[in-house]
UniProtKB/TrEMBL annotation, chains A, B:
PANTHER family: ACYL-COA DEHYDROGENASE (PTHR42803), BROAD-SPECIFICITY LINEAR ACYL-COA DEHYDROGENASE FADE5 (PTHR42803:SF1). Pfam families: Acyl-CoA_dh_1, Acyl-CoA_dh_C, Acyl-CoA_dh_M, Acyl-CoA_dh_N. Residues 282-451 form the Acyl-CoA dehydrogenase/oxidase C-terminal domain. This is Acyl-CoA dehydrogenase C-terminal domain-containing protein. Transmembrane segments: none annotated. Its cofactor is FAD. Residues 76-157 form the Acyl-CoA dehydrogenase/oxidase N-terminal domain. Belongs to the acyl-CoA dehydrogenase family. Residues 467-592 form the Acetyl-CoA dehydrogenase-like C-terminal domain. Residues 163-271 form the Acyl-CoA oxidase/dehydrogenase middle domain. Coiled coil: none annotated. Keywords: FAD, Flavoprotein, Oxidoreductase.
Length: 598, 598
């Protein structure tokens, strides 16, 4: 049977000790984030994840969602009850504004908690996850009336949300989309078209589903400049704002897919459905990007979530599976064989995942904190600096953490040998579920292009320069601390590779953008390594300080942090040189062959 | 709809031009391997793969195998008919001895053909694949009577074979196995026990199933020294050698698993089933390793097979999918968007897979040729030298090609975006099928341990020294050929890393074997990179020679070889430095934490 235990202590170490969240008490909603309060909330979330969401994860995969002949969709057994408990606990609205029924707590805290929830049951958490995106878009671009009408219901989870972008012929390139909007004359529109891959598109857990749909108003310009965003509720609302008449939107099919079987991925048909413009006409992409950016951070975190639960199961199996003997002589001589965790190669596997997960958790929370600062600080300079880093990190977090999420789910599965390939241990599900996160909300190749094509040059490179300075200063400040020098030395080397690769782009990709495209994925991972290395160096520094201050209660935990940090610097950081070397080969070899030569 | 076209020209280039198979006409069975004959056979195989096996691959995945209440198992629709055509074509016995009904042709040719068959339908090809292993074991260890009784039926495919090693508590560590054999007094034994993960364990395509079963004869020594191998036919044979009375062996369940749904992976229950000892009492592992080594090469090839078919589909999709514009301006201005193959990052993805596939094909055929020489040459020195390389390459071929098989199936799937995640394009199947090859026939961590723990030191390092010399000599001989120097320079650098890492093991792992274990997986991949690089250098040399000789018919193909070789040397070979750096960090950091710290 699969196991899961939320890593509460690690989350608290990062929030309290590494990031020093208490220092941010001046931000809106941060006043109550004392260590005690954080621990109380996070432990409560852990309990829900472990005891309610996780037990129905494997069964949810096995049962999947079912579409009935009338187009209605049933979710797996237990999902509705678990979803209700999640909503009743106020988890959906944890960081939402109080005026719409939320708790107004930090987004950082929401993120900490969301990691656990997605570890426990990614498919189920996608339903409220999509709702979060809808809330964000309506908050930023909705009219006051739209906010009052939709937000309270979405925040309490009585209604859920969706994002409708993709059409059969159009995914990344939204300029090609064909869905149409025709004005009714009363301010509403008739929306028609087919959307595919719509997560949570139809289900039986909510009283209403609020579809946010990209469509083209009749006569709008071609391409992305003619796209608008519409609210299309499954049930139109009556005068009192309650769901009433059924709208002309329906689920035509559920996709048969590799994983996330517990989430209903729908083909949605809009047949002159009534929709309401949100934000400005033809500026739908701006509104959609509010959802998208939020969603990209959440998806990056899914990579961590799955890698974490897969890791825990692999570590547990490695401790329990008795097979063969240690290379250096029996370690459990009283037994017929040693547990396989005696083997260096099994430990290498586990420590690789652990090193990415712990740094990934820090990376995710650090980025979430930037988001809080960017949205809640009253100091404009601070807001801007945080927003710069947030924008820069979004594609890296999404791309790197989800690539690693799959890679590490596969590594964890490998520890189980043949038992990992059959479905009953759940390892196959983690791999199959993790796979989607590399694809949706912008495939990782698109994240890499966003990074090198937009984020690097944004505001004259202000964000990337600030980040280089922050990491460089950290190395410099701790250069003479011999307890830290092995970490900062390795980090500095990684940073040098990153800076050199960045310089190479500046010199070689301006005139020839293919040179940026050819190195984009390597660059994204190179950047990720440096940021994760920075997280490890900061965690190591904190751990050293705590140990030096004589902290005994967490001594083993803190020493283990140092060992894992050492592993990351020894084994993982040297990859930056390889990434840089690949980038510097440029695009010529790649672009030489005709399309037909592939 | 998925597509597949067997890469006949590439196979012929490798066999005829790179490996010069005609030079081996003195080996038994090689007399007929003229270019014309090879082309005829290989083209016929391609036709069967493309037209018969491939069309039922996706449907086979969707239908899976079904166990009925009486323990019988049905294979997917069309499998039996396709299997019959495969057998009727003589493909199963292509390389088997003529005296048992085979065609006695080279194993190298069998391997070339098997790549196509597994690309087209891996699940279906596992049934005859397991039979090949049974044939090999009986050929080497069976009595004359056993050979006469079983081989002709296995070679023609009327009966199929299985390998029964794994038990619920015992996989890698066969010393733990509990299945029992009790002598009947007439030379036969009563076999009892439960075996799991038995591929092709029960099905409705053959008249009989010949199970090769590891069990412990009552009173045998503990551990691996007390294991014997038995033939346990599903139906016992009557006096004329025809299947008659049902034996007490039955399929208790079919495993629900991630992929290879078309193959019946069975729990097999032996309940005092009649079995016949094969080979020597308590020497069962020797006999099993004959099957295992053969199977490891076949599984390594499955990695190539899946990566190839996944690649072809991704390349095809990239040419057809219209989405977005080239970074350097529209390439298809008459259309609404460019095909995504204009993007450097898509090309990087495709070329990475292509570079591994083409070198992997050469690696596989080169190794298969070593097997032919080792078994068929009349020159003992030549036999031994070939057997050395074969033994050394077996874990590398299995481990590297299957790790890359999954990695590249995932990369190919990524080209499809969301369409790769749904089942209808078949990309999910390739990923799910490829995953098993990293696990079965010895998980890849075991391959890496076999390499560093046994194969390196075998005969005082004779094999590895010979290989280093061969690659080093190649670099030296072509050092001054400026058309080749960029290839040989990169290869030489990789070889240096491999030699340094080998030296590091000699100095650091003798006294402390954990240092070998800690670097084993990196070493296996480092070795793989060098061998694949060697294949690329040889292919580039051949291509240069052909082009210099004015060969025009294949000019585009040959130039493309050179481009792909350049890509491999530029982008892939530099990974050797990273692998070496990791190896040289040793085991200390890994071994430091308690098991509970993971």
């Amino acid at each position: 049977m699969p196991i899961y235990k939320a890593p509460v202590n690690d989350t608290l170490f990062i929030l309290n000790d590494v990031l020093g969240i208490e220092r941010y008490h001046n931000l809106t909603g941060f006043a109550d984030t004392t260590p005690d309060m954080l621990e109380a909330i996070i432990s409560e979330a852990a309990k829900l994840a472990e005891e309610v969401l996780f037990p129905i994860n494997l069964s949810g995969d096995q049962q999947g969602c079912r579409r009935h002949d009338d187009g209605s969709v049933s979710v797996p057994k237990g999902f509705k009850e678990a979803y209700d408990l999640y909503c009743e606990g106020g988890w959906l609205g944890l960081a939402a504004p109080e005026e719409f029924g939320g708790q107004g707590l930090p987004y950082t805290l929401h993120t900490a908690v969301a990691e656990y929830m997605s570890s426990a049951n990614m498919s189920l958490m996608m339903y409220p996850g999509l709702t979060q995106g809808a809330i964000a878009a309506i908050l930023v671009h909705g009219s006051e009336e739209q906010k009052r009408t939709y937000l309270p219901k979405l925040v309490e989870g009585t209604w859920t949300g969706t994002m409708n972008l993709t059409e059969p012929h159009c995914g990344t390139d939204l300029g090609l989309l064909r869905s149409k909007a025709v004005p009714n004359g009363d301010g509403s529109y008739k929306i028609s078209g087919q959307k595919i891959f719509i997560s949570a598109g139809e289900h039986d857990m909510a009283e209403n589903i609020i579809h946010l749909v990209l469509a083209r108003i009749e006569g709008a310009p071609e391409g992305v400049k003619g796209i608008s965003l519409f609210i299309v509720p499954k049930f139109k609302l009556d005068a009192s704002g309650e769901p009433a008449e059924r709208n002309n939107v329906s689920c035509g099919a559920i996709e048969r897919k590799m994983g996330i079987h517990g989430n209903s991925t729908c083909v949605m048909n809009y047949d002159e459905a009534t929709g309401y413009l949100i934000g400005t006409e033809n500026k739908g992409l701006n509104a959609m990007f509010v959802m998208m950016n939020e969603a990209r951070l959440a998806v990056g975190m899914q990579g961590l979530s799955i890698a974490e639960v897969a890791y825990q199961n692999a570590a547990n199996y490695a401790r329990e599976r008795i097979q063969g003997r240690s290379l250096s002589g029996p370690k459990a001589p009283d037994k017929k064989a040693d547990p396989i965790i005696v083997h260096p190669d099994v430990r290498r596997t586990l420590m690789t995942i652990k090193a990415f997960n712990e740094a990934g958790r820090a990376f995710t929370l650090w980025t979430a904190l930037k988001s809080d600062i960017a949205h809640r600080s009253d100091n404009e300079e601070e807001r801007q600096a945080a927003d710069d880093i947030l924008s820069l990190m979004t594609p890296i977090l999404k791309g790197v953490m989800t690539d690693k999420g799959l890679e590490h789910a596969v590594m964890a599965q490998q520890v189980f040998g043949g038992h990992g390939y059959i479905e009953e241990h759940g390892m196959s599900q983690y791999v199959r579920d993790a796979r989607i996160a590399m694809i949706y909300e912008g495939a990782n190749g698109i994240q890499a292009l966003d990074l090198v094509g937009r984020k690097l040059a944004m505001n004259g490179g202000r964000a990337v320069m600030a980040l280089f300075k922050e990491v460089g200063d950290f190395c410099e400040e701790n250069r003479n601390d011999e307890r830290l020098s092995s970490y900062t030395k390795a980090l500095k080397k990684g940073l040098n590779d990153l800076q050199a690769a960045t310089m190479w782009f500046m010199q070689n990709a301006m005139a020839k953008p293919d040179n940026a495209g050819a190195g984009s994925t390597d660059y994204m991972h190179l950047f990720g390594l440096v940021v994760l290395g920075y997280m490890w160096a900061r965690m190591a520094k904190t751990a050293q300080e705590k140990l030096a201050a004589g902290e005994t209660a967490r001594a083993d935990y803190l020493k283990n942090k140092l060992t894992t940090a050492t592993f990351f610097m020894e084994r993982i950081m040297p990859e930056t040189a390889l990434r840089r070397a690949r980038i510097e080969t440029g695009a010529d070899t790649l672009m030489a062959p005709d399309a037909g030569a592939f």
